[in-house]
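Fold these two proteins, one after the other.
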Amino acid sequence: MTDRPRGRAHGGRGGAEPRPRIRLREIHVLEQVMAGRTQHQIASMLGITQPAVSKIVRRIEERLLADVAYKAERQRARQ
């Protein structure tokens, strides 16, 4: 068993990749998705695997949906 704590990993290489690098990669992936590139093309461009791109896209989508839900709830509370 590992000594690494359970819960949300920090991504990449054994969970030790710095969060700013993860965020920067998310930005690059989002830019490429918006440009219409496939996950395989993005993976090749960034030097990561297609499943990693898929995970990044899913994480971005979850974050955006959570933000929309939060803003909708705030708007309802104001009314």
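Now the second one:
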Amino acid sequence: HDDLVARAREQVTARIEVPAVRGTIYDRSGTVVLATSVERDLLSAYPAQMTGATDADTAALRGSVAAKVAGILGLAPTAAAALLAQLDGGSAYVVLAHDLTPVQSSAIRAGLADGSLVQLNLEPEEVRVYPQAGGATGTSPAAQLLGFVNRDGTGQYGVEGHWQDLLAGSPQVLLAQRDGTGQPIMESAQTLEPGTPGTSLTLTIDASLQLKLEQEVYAAWVADSAKGVSGVVMDPRTGEILASASYPSYDGNDYAAIAANDPSRFIDPVVSAVYEPGSVFKLLTATAALQAGV
């Protein structure tokens, strides 16, 4: 009896984890935002409920919805065909697109309001953004130093990866009843764990100096046709890193494109590459001579 009751309860309840708002990353002034989180919409659909009186009506309805959504999202023909295939699959629930722009979200809402779109839903999701422009086209500031956050909300590389637990906080855990379609009824949700918000970080990086260094590194890369260029600006009295830049770099807002084509760019050569010290090693020789008094 107890086992059957527990299994029945599992069928009609859902355990939901609501991620905490991720902490913001600032430069040394505490005012320039290097990384933050914003709320964007995820577009989902209920194809199994997208039906007409006949099979032909159902096909026409799904085709109409797919065409309108593809137009709103600006999809290429191949992507538009893939979206139609998702609707024709007849699944109970599918995710059609992430990170909708405010304009796209407004267009979807307008379509739902006038009836030209049906059985679609906009769900808020947190997206990590790097709002400043980097020192070279197609880059964000200190990209390799900061790292990025993947679709699952997990920090990868750099500060985002190293301080993942601190930045991410802990999720709120809810228990909710399911409706007839299997979706949770949030009005019935009970809090099991309150969760904790992510902690913000203030780095020693100076945003203005970081931008200037990135511009100089990029200029050197162009002038010398170099495979790679790196530079670090340090406070010799404290050891604080005021700027750290390398090129080639990337845009943390578009990490997926880099992951597909050249994931080696994610590695920060300043701390991960091996190189011959060359003339910079003369500083150690001179320091040793001064210390020895010779």
